[in-house]
Design goal:
The complex is a heterodimer of chains A (265) and B (229).
Chain A (H helix, E strand, L loop, with lengths): L1 E2 L10 H4 L5 E4 L4 E4 L9 H5 L1 E2 L4 H13 L10 E2 L4 E2 L8 H7 L21 H4 L6 E8 L6 E2 H13 L9 H4 L1 E3 L4 E2 L7 E2 L2 E8 L3 H12 L5 E9 L8 H7 L6 E5 L7
Parallel strand pairs in A: 4-5
Antiparallel strand pairs in A: 1-6, 2-3, 7-12, 7-13, 8-11, 9-10
Chain B lengths: L17 E6 L9 H14 L4 E4 L3 E2 L21 H7 L6 E5 L2 H14 L4 E7 H10 L6 E10 L7 H7 L9 H13 L4 H9 L9 H11 L9
Antiparallel strand pairs in B: 1-4, 1-5, 2-3, 2-4
Helix pairs in contact in B: 1-2, 3-4, 7-8
Classes of the chains: A alpha+beta (265), B alpha+beta (229).
Chain lengths: 265, 229
């Protein structure tokens, strides 16, 4: 993403909007600019902000005049007055930034918008996670902290070392050069993204060991890790995971519940 | 996509937050799913959702690319339900957000009768989701638990900012932007409703809950608030 220097009037509206804090105003030029290394190509600024198409010279003139009298205009906070935010042409490997950061981009590997798969949201149809099994979604970088792939690789390598088989349809798995060791492509390791999800499943008895490993490795990363676990319920709606999670000291409040109304066509 | 799984807050904080969504299973029932997704949204409309959206095309709150300067005094806060329904054109996830359990239950009951064949999920506090399921006459099939955050949690914001920011699970609501709007509401420069609509326009899949956001903004104005770090 870039800011058109001819159009920018340095109003500053886009600065807090950026989830990565990658936009700032250069005091010498009096224009906003994007730190390309920090920008994750999430398109939050370009798509989320509303746009006006005002004449930049006129806007700068009015702003200068108001400043002279110590007056401040109170604009809408989500408007770029001169449509100065402009997407870049991006190429590999930078393109993975957008694929993992812009929720409106569909991953070719999954056919799903976003960073993971259908998880247990379609389990009533796919039976991906059966009774006695547990699905995991280990998400890096969220909320709005961001992550580089080299941190994700630390986790995938550690998980592979304890025998984890990664979900084949997950976008991160597609970037592995060796699924047995969790090794990711070298050319993406320094790319920064808004978030990514690593998915896999185990038997329920392995939950304590897996969560301990995730916790242990997470402490060594420069980002936050959000963890979700899922399972199929019994006929009466009960979940064997309740007792396991309680035993491990997790008091989970929030969750997603599949109501079992789906079926194969 | 775990975009509503890690919404931040206590169990009580989700008492006005029920997200019901439909998703086709790729390779199993996605052929012809577009019409069923539209049907889901049409049924949802009858139960007055506070937000509704399609993960490919956006929600009832949308940014505009052709504003004129009067917007700074008269911002249109109307909600565009028609565009959400009519713009569904591909296999995707559609969602409707309700701010009370009764409407969520009534919606699920009608979905059950409509028998769309798509997977239907509800995202809220786990105990409230089970209440909804049972009141609607179904037992839950599968459940996914949020275990919270690991790692460098000191890089996250304070809990009040997180409650607002994580309502867009895709991370489109930056901590700084939430803090800015909280401050503006406290200063009386924007109402909670205006600030909520502003945040909602950044959530592209329509799961942001403006009712809950209004309540959180309103609470931020209280004397005991510690919203700012």
């Amino acid at each position: 993403m870039q800011i058109d220097q001819q159009k920018c009037v340095a109003c500053g509206n886009c600065i807090p909007v950026c989830p990565m804090g990658a936009i700032s105003i250069d005091p010498l030029k009096n224009r906003a600019s994007v730190n390309a290394d920090e920008c994750v190509e999430c398109y939050t600024c370009f798509r989320g902000m509303s746009m006006e198409k005002l004449n930049p010279t006129m806007v700068r003139g009015i702003r200068g005049l108001l400043k002279l009298f110590r007056l401040r205009f109170d604009p809408e906070p989500d408007v770029c007055p001169t449509s100065a935010i402009t997407p870049d042409e991006i190429a590999w490997p930078r393109i993975v930034r957008r694929a993992f950061s812009d929720p409106l981009v569909t991953h070719e590997s999954t056919g799903v918008h976003g960073r993971g798969t259908e998880e247990v949201k379609t389990n009533d149809v796919t039976n991906r996670v059966g009774i006695g099994e547990v699905g995991y979604v280990v998400e890096f970088g969220r909320p709005t902290v961001g992550v580089r792939f080299r941190d994700i690789e630390k986790m995938t390598r550690a998980l592979a070392a304890i025998g984890i088989d990664f979900e084949p349809r997950n976008p991160v798995t597609h970037l592995m050069t060796d699924k047995k060791t969790g090794k990711l492509r070298d050319d993406i390791l320094n790319e920064k993204i808004l978030s990514a999800i690593v998915e896999f499943k185990t038997r329920i008895e392995n939950v304590p060991a897996v969560l301990e490993k995730v916790d242990q490795v997470s402490k060594t990363l420069e980002t936050v890790v959000a963890v979700g676990v899922s399972t199929r319920c019994e006929q009466d709606g009960s979940s064997a995971l309740d007792a396991v999670l309680a035993e491990e000291g997790f008091m989970s409040v929030r969750g997603k519940t599949n109501l079992g109304l789906g079926r194969r066509a | 996509m775990t975009n509503t799984l890690h919404r931040y807050g206590s169990g009580e904080s989700f008492s006005d937050d029920y997200i019901v969504f439909a998703i086709p299973a790729r390779g199993f029932n996605d052929n012809g799913a577009v019409e069923k997704l539209r049907q889901f949204l049409e049924i949802a409309r009858k139960y007055k959702p506070v937000n509704m959206g399609d993960a490919s095309h956006g929600s009832i709150f949308r940014p505009s690319k052709e504003l004129n300067p009067t917007v700074h005094w008269r911002r249109d806060l109307s909600r565009d339900f028609d565009s959400v329904v009519s713009s569904v054109s591909c296999t995707t996830t559609v969602a409707a957000v309700f701010d009370n359990q009764d409407q969520a239950v009534a919606f699920i009951q009608e979905l059950k009768e409509a028998d769309l064949g798509l997977s239907i999920n509800i995202s809220t506090a786990l105990d409230k989701a089970q209440q909804c399921a049972r009141r609607a006459g179904v037992e839950r099939h599968s459940v996914e638990y949020s275990l919270g955050f690991f790692g460098q949690t000191d890089r996250m914001a304070d809990r009040h900012t997180l409650e607002l920011s994580t309502m867009c699970g895709h991370g489109m609501l930056s901590f700084d932007f939430v803090r800015k709007l909280v401050e503006w509401v406290k200063q009386g420069r924007r109402t909670p409703e205006q600030a909520s609509a502003t945040l909602a326009r950044f959530c592209s899949c329509g799961v942001f809950n403006p009712t809950r956001a209004c309540r959180l903004f309103q609470e931020s104005k209280g004397p005991s608030s510690s919203l700012m770090k």
